[in-house]
Amino acid sequence: LPDLQLAKAVEDAAFQNSIEKRVMYLARLEEERIKVVDRITDHQSRVKKIFDKKSKQRDFQIGDLVLLWDKRENKKEC
């Protein structure tokens, strides 16, 4: 019977250890996710800044002809 109790204690300790490892993994995963979100946000702001620097302001007057893009006509049918 002592061997069975020892085996149960070892099994419980191993289970507890695996839970702790999983919690630590999830914590690191959340930290990495936050870092990636920050990097994406920084990259998007840099791209926007470059685009805005190169783009020109366009002023339209009433009566000017403009091209109206219809997204419904360009949908690909599967």
Key words describing this protein structure:
single chain; 78 residues; mainly alpha; 68% helix; elongated
Question: Sheet with the most strands?
Answer: none
Number of strands: 0
User: What is the residue-averaged pLDDT?
Assistant: 88
Number of continuous helical runs: 1
Quick structural gist:
Helices cover 68% and strands 0% of the residues.
What does the model show?
Helices cover 68% and strands 0% of the residues. The chain has 78 residues and is mainly α. It has a domain at 2-53. The longest helix has 53 residues, at 2-54. It is elongated, with a radius of gyration of 29 Å.
Topology at a glance:
Blueprint: H1 2-54
